């Protein structure tokens, strides 16, 4: 997760973690739920970055681009997100 914080700070974006990771209740079979919130020209890079970071940790990921997520979805998770950085 520190890698994600560093990339967000360096590139002017953020990763929004929600679900069990944000609520500090991850289990052995949990995945990482994350919304990628970066400028449009950096979205692909940020998406690949988080995919690679999760793969290196053998951590399944459920990744969403904020720009492609519905307002209904974002509203549903809004109170459960932790922003990095």
Query: What is the count of distinct domains?
Result: 1
The total of helices stands at 3
Named CATH architecture: 2-Layer Sandwich
Largest sheet: 4 strands, mixed
Secondary-structure-based class equals alpha+beta
Number of strands: 4
State the CATH topology: Beta Polymerase, domain 2
> What is the 3D form?
globular
Order of helices and strands: HEEHEHE
Topology:
Elements: H1 2-11, E1 14-18, E2 32-37, H2 43-56, E3 61-65, H3 71-77, E4 82-84
Parallel strand pairs: 2-3
Antiparallel strand pairs: 1-2, 1-4
Helix pairs in contact: 1-2
Please explain how this structure is put together.
The structure is a single chain. By secondary structure, the protein is of the alpha+beta class. The chain has a single domain (2-84), classed as Beta Polymerase, domain 2 (2-Layer Sandwich). The chain has three helices and four strands, in the order H-E-E-H-E-H-E. The chain has helices spanning 2-11, 43-56, 71-77; strands spanning 14-18, 32-37, 61-65, 82-84. Strands 3-2-1-4 form a four-stranded mixed sheet, covered by helices on one side. Strand 2 (32-37), helix 2 (43-56) and strand 3 (61-65) form a beta-alpha-beta unit. The longest helix has 14 residues, at 43-56. This is Polymerase nucleotidyl transferase domain-containing protein. Pfam families: NTP_transf_2. Residues 12-64 form the Polymerase nucleotidyl transferase domain.
């Amino acid at each position: 997760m520190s890698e994600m914080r560093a990339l967000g700070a360096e590139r002017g974006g953020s990763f929004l973690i929600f679900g069990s990771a944000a609520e500090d209740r991850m289990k052995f079979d949990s995945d990482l739920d994350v919304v990628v919130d970066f400028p449009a020209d950096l979205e692909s890079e940020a998406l690949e970055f988080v995919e690679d970071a999760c793969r290196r940790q053998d951590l399944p990921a459920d990744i969403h681009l904020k720009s492609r997520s519905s307002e209904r979805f974002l509203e549903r998770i809004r109170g459960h997100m932790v922003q990095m950085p």
